[in-house]
Sequence to fold (347 residues):
Amino acid sequence: MSRSGSVADKTPIADSELSAIFDDFSGVKKLLLAVSGGPDSTALLLLAARWRAKLKRGPELCAATIDHGLRAASAREAKAVAKLAAKLNIPHATLRWTGKKPITGLQEAAREARYALFVTHAEAIGADALTTAHTRDDQAETVLHRIARGSGIGGLAGIRRKRTRGKNLLLVRPFLDLPKSRLVATLKKARIPFASDPTNRDDKYLRARLRKIAPVLAREGIDSAKLALLAKRMLRAEKALRSAADAAVADLSRGQGDGTFDAAGFFALPDEIAVRVLRGEIDRRGTEGPSELAKVENLHPALVLAHGAREGVKRTLAGALVELSDTELRITAAPARKVKAAKDLGV
Fold:
């Protein structure tokens, strides 16, 4: 979803840019490169090798490719990556996703399997960091995808540049501010071939459909640069709101830490902070996994009305029991029968 027609967005990556791009890995001892064989990750393999060659001291590089077994060409693509890695003097491993594949939610399952394999391999070889080749285009698609799903501010913050996976594996996306077109231009200049995954054009997947409407959006000014900027601003807002919610929890819990809050103080909070406090405690105390934002957003005004009418409330959500009295709002794990009741009521 790069901005169409921008000359800068079609310029190959220069060696002078590599230090800034890979700066996050200055203290890393061993870096695992996730390389699928597509243009983005192939460029990652090439540019990481160039960056490391310029350093007197730096991390040991290694690469891995996942063979999902979902396409006949995947094994051939993994071999092509291995060949390029050998040419660049980077050790390479092909990891295979074995076992039964789901009929629905295949892309999501494949993504989780991919990260699980990378994390396991990183731990096995002693890598302390993992890098993937997500670009600004991927960030833009993620934002649009999450808008379609009805995500909140945290979801619209998109892909994080840095996070931790597994026990203590640093995951970094160094290309997140770069358009895909620059990576393709880099490979073309170096005359290095790359694979093309046909699922990226398969209309049964939402991301593929979003790619097809990208030129239309770009003509209206909704291009990858603008959507990536939106993600950055949402991340900034998310951090501030999370901090405010954490402070509210500390202030209202009276140091008890048992999910009990002063009711008057809770209902004096701005709605966004109150919803975050409520959702955070439901997820912390509940037994049925993360709660849905929309359901918490529906629960909050119901609690506000009950508090105004001085009515007691008992509601269950995501395996948590929410109880409101005149003076306290209390959130605890729901008994098993309460969890069943919540499912029956569709709460």
